[in-house]
Fold these 2 entries.
Entry 1:
Amino acid sequence: MAKHSLSEFEARVFELVQLQPELAAAEVARRLKSRPHRVTYVVRRLIEEEFIEKRVLINPFALGLKVIVVFFSLTIPGEAARLARLNEIAKQNGVSWVACYSGRMQVGVVLHSPTLEDGLRQLDQLGVSLGGHMRDKMIAVRTHYYQFPRRYLQPITNGKATFLHITSNAPSEQALKLTEEERAIVMRLANGSCPSQRELARELGQPVSSLENRMLALRKKNIVSGTFYSLNTRRLKILSYKILLSMQQCHPQVEEQVLAFCRQNVHCCFLLRTLGSWDYEIGIECFTPQDLANVTGEIYQHLEKFIDHLEVLDEISVLKFSLFPFSTKNNGAL
């Protein structure tokens, strides 16, 4: 019978390595007062049983890309017809993410574009492809991304979380031109699990020494911003939500308080700073709707004097997720 939960020890191991995949087993064992071979076994088994997957964080801002997100209602009648149209959209060049939600906002789409003008053209094309069935759309441009460790799996852990952070504060003036070899590396790492460099070199047909040099260059440019273990939330029957926050005012104090709240709350998995129809996106994961109600209550408690509007999106499914959503060899600036 398929397993649908993690043991206490498995959850504690995952909490320590999820944003630090290279953390030595001996160090994890020391912190957990266990033995290295037990830690190694647990990580290997979680990967083999598809609970976790090692991924690479590709930084679109370092590539000079603009990240545009739109949420909207979709009035196409019939679930099969809606899914067919959304799957067509998911295949389009530059479409990074497509997800379905319950409630007022039924669909979310993220676009990666070399310029804002290109992104607006993509949005127009998206509306045309949906034949006038896109309604109540909300649009924003993402500027900061914070990824927090999942701590709700092991509730005894307290304190503020460490995190991964990428930002568009100092983006390239224009989208970077990758060499064909660099592009192959980025596309492979952005759209699958993270292999060893030797495995990656063999898979792409590049000499190991050349690939190592290219990986070093990609890291120096912050295009490859880090590694992490993703979690198979569906397998564990975990509920996923997005909270969209519109604020009465936006200044550094507000951002500091929003970030501090997300670092403290164990159900917050990521935070996105945006410019547009809302100011912040908070990713929430939990086991019950009551957990979500508790989180929203705590948000109001901590940020009430700043909040203008709060909207919750209940995620049903993700149809596409790619950190480098370009399929053709020559796609403009990239």
Entry 2:
Amino acid sequence: MIDLISVYLPGQRPTSDVDFTQTTRRFGTRMADKNLLIRPYKDGTLLQGSLPKYWAGENASTLSRFQLQATLSKLEARTGLDLREGKLFAFEVGKTLLVNRPPREYLDTWYSFGRFKKWTVADCQTVKFVTEGRSFIGYDKRLQMKGQPMPEVFAGYHALRMELKYRNRKAVWKIYGRNLSPWDLTERHVLDDLENRWREFYRRIPKPRQVRIDLAGLTQKEFMTVLAHVGAKSYGYDRMNHLLSDGQKAGDVDRYVTSRIKAALREIAADDRLTDTTSLTEEVDDAVRRS
């Protein structure tokens, strides 16, 4: 589940046997090995980038523990850097979940909590909770990859990506009360603990039960029908039926009108344009539990 890392290697320089100079349209000239940026400083080197992308060319998939070890070994062999002596300044724990609906529908159920500031981007295509030291982000992985092919396992599904990030050295230190190197992240007990922290953060996010309107292809008339459903649901269908029955008995509304209104209420209640988010929450809860 380890994805992006930012690691400082005091007193080290990348090997001169390999030319790491890259020329890119977006960043100009830079030093990098594939996607991993290499930034030499006077007293050391900073290395930043996604380990899954370095290994497989994409980070929708999750590296196994052995793949993570192989990735670090490959990186050391290519750069000549000793990552065991490195100090992590930031890293991400993430996983991409297979879901049946567009990710924005799941993210729309997430509410603010605690000290975390909530950021929402592009109609809930991305939701992020942030403090100085940590962040947790959920987003549509297919949209983020901008048309790049997804791994075969995602065929026929939407892809919800969730990442827990420790954003600075102080936040990393607080996990275990010491500095961590990239190789520490390959230890079984550390990986298990970080995966549990990722799950627990997701579980902490409030997800109140609410009604959500499916706007895809909605006409004006259908939209008004769905709003009627929202109003009737809020008022309560049982309460509405009692109101109509009492009104008929009191002579405020005749039997024909009462019958037509009740028929309309039954039709509105069956409208599949309006969904209960409970099933969305349960689907992701189950995917997180099984991950």
